[in-house]
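hey so i finally got around to running the thing on that chain from the lab meeting. sorry it took forever, my laptop kept dying and i had to restart like 3 times. anyway pasting the input first so we r on the same page abt which one it is
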Amino acid sequence: MKRNLASDGKSTELQHSAFPVGLDMIEVLTRFWGELDQILPARIIHVVDPYFLDAGGESTYTHAGNVASLLKPALRTAEEIRLIYSRQREGVAAAIEECFLRVNPDIDIVLHRGTQMHARYVIADCTRVLRMDFSFNRIRKSFCTVSVVSDPSDLEGILGELRRLEESPEN
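ok and heres what got predicted. didnt touch it at all, straight out
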């Protein structure tokens, strides 16, 4: 836990997990699942990541398997997962869908193109938010942090943008 000074001079708390470059995948999973556990269980999961459906330099199935592994605790119990993205590489959506359905054959998967958000979030039941410093295609490739959003004004801003995205006609 770190203490930061807010712009008004008051002390605030920041809790996060750090993900250094080259961290073993089992350690990544352990840390990420610990953070994800703070917002679960959830019936509906939103994942906001502009590059979610772009595998970066990974093979399509390596990327899809890594994402399914990271989100496994949420996928197991959720009824629906909504993936909000802006860039897509051919074949990635089908590979991710296949991997997600292996974890939970009954989950509904909804793809929604058109986010203007650059930050990445996992949102549980439109009430609890996990903020990620990285796109899923950058895990283990760059230093990043993951933290639960607890500030009420930040939470309302993120959820307001999510509502706007959900209402937009782009799909």
